[in-house]
Amino acid sequence: MDDSLALLDDQIAIHKRYSQHPYDLDADVAGALALTGDEQILDVGCGTGEFLRHLLHHGHRGPLIGIDLRPAAVEATNRTPGLRACRANVDQLPFTASMFDRATAKHVLYYLPDPARSLRELRRVTRPGGRVCVSINHTQTAPRIHALVAAHAARSGFAPQPASAVWAAQPGMPDSVTVATVAPLMRATFGNVTIRRRDNALLFPSVASLLRYAEVIVRFSCGVPPQNSHHDAILAQVRDEVRAWFAANNSRPWRDAKGYTVFTSTR
């Protein structure tokens, strides 16, 4: 599997296991789309097809189409009968105007160099009366552990990306993509927007559980692969501080805030 996809799987598993409150982003987005089951749906940045499979498994009958820039993601999505994916850029979608009844971009906007342009392209391919649903993580996603890892990575000569979102720590990520700025972007593009905010937190019960997440941050946010000579040293330094914190706090869980917001507009 592509390394970025494997890291994404790790992050999803950690968030599912250690979230303070149960959550289901796929269900939230599907609900916001107000589906009847027959719509033609486009999922931008589909990854390995998790959201499209969610719809398929819940009885959706209409065409389910995804795009992603990663060949491995496209291949993985296409392995599921009933799903179709292709490699494409959201800024230049290879689809005709008004082709889709619904379009989604889950945790994607912060990867894009021009989010406003991408939203206009989503509007173009969505039919009048259709819906476009976008989700983003909150700016402060697990800020405590991100700050700790970033400090030790910086001492080793790395320049970690801002902890604006665990899923979206990418070089060149636009600082403009936040909960406060996406709503005006959606409103400017579609003339309307409905907002649903989900606040949550990660609760890590032990040193080992928190270090598992720290390793993902070292690799994904800081760009330090396991084969790099600094990788183990950074994690060792983080481990020492984390152990000291648990010892000083009578082994109570480490709590780090997180959450996401779903924005829905009608074409």
TrEMBL record:
The entry lists its GO molecular-function terms as: methyltransferase activity
Output the Gene3D superfamilies linked to this UniProt entry.
Vaccinia Virus protein VP39 (3.40.50.150)
CDD domains linked to this entry: AdoMet_MTases
Q: What InterPro entries does its record include?
A: Methyltransf_11, SAM-dependent_MTases_sf
Instruction: Specify the domain of life of the species encoding this protein.
Output: Bacteria
Q: Which UniProt keywords apply?
A: Methyltransferase, Transferase
PANTHER family, per this entry? METHYLTRANSFERASE
State the protein's name: Class I SAM-dependent methyltransferase
